[in-house]
Write a structure and sequence with these properties.
There is one protein chain. This protein is α+β, with helices and mostly antiparallel strands. The chain has one domain. Helices cover 43% and strands 11% of the residues. The chain has five helices and five strands, in the order βαααββαββα. It has a three-stranded antiparallel β-sheet with strand order 1-3-2, with helices on one face. A hairpin with a 7-residue loop joins strand 2 and strand 3. Helix 1 runs parallel beside helix 5 and helix 2 runs antiparallel to helix 5. The chain is elongated and about 55 Å long. 22% of the residues are buried.
């Protein structure tokens, strides 16, 4: 089974702040469920905007791909299968996953593909965290501190 999953894993100062906020919550499971939905919305928005988590526009399709498809956009949505992501929270993790697609990770991360790895696929990240994403999760945790 292939595919890709995004777990709430944050580093640096944001990690410490978010961990502190989550640690103060009475119902952490509720936070992880809500955070998973936010992450799902963020991921879906990237398909619409055709931008990565850091705001960088996805690389355009290769001319040969445009010729075979008859169109240059939307970039990662020929069948819509990559966009079929879902929230998959656990009691202690916020998580979003794709359907089990063999090409999901290569589209997100880039790399060699095709017969004999003869094609280089540029990274077009749709999973991940940007500063705005982290801020939204911090705001969620802060808002849940005051809801009893």
């Amino acid at each position: 089974m292939s595919g890709i999953a995004l777990k709430l894993t944050i580093k640096g100062d944001a990690k410490e702040k978010l961990a502190e906020l989550i640690g103060k919550l009475d119902n952490q499971q509720q936070f992880f469920a809500a955070a998973s939905e936010i992450m799902l919305d963020q991921t879906q928005a990237r398909f619409k905007e055709q931008r990565g988590p850091d705001g960088t526009a996805w690389k355009p399709l290769a001319p040969a791909t445009v010729a075979s498809r008859g169109s240059s956009s939307p970039i990662l949505e020929v069948s819509g299968a990559l966009r079929n992501v879902h929230a998959a929270p656990t009691s202690d993790t916020a998580k979003v996953e794709t359907s089990p697609l063999v090409y999901a990770a290569i589209q997100n991360e880039g790399g060699k593909a095709g017969r004999g790895n003869s094609v280089t696929i540029p990274a077009r990240p749709y999973f991940g965290f940007g500063d705005d994403d982290i801020n939204e999760l911090e705001e969620l945790a802060e808002s849940m501190l005051f809801v009893k």
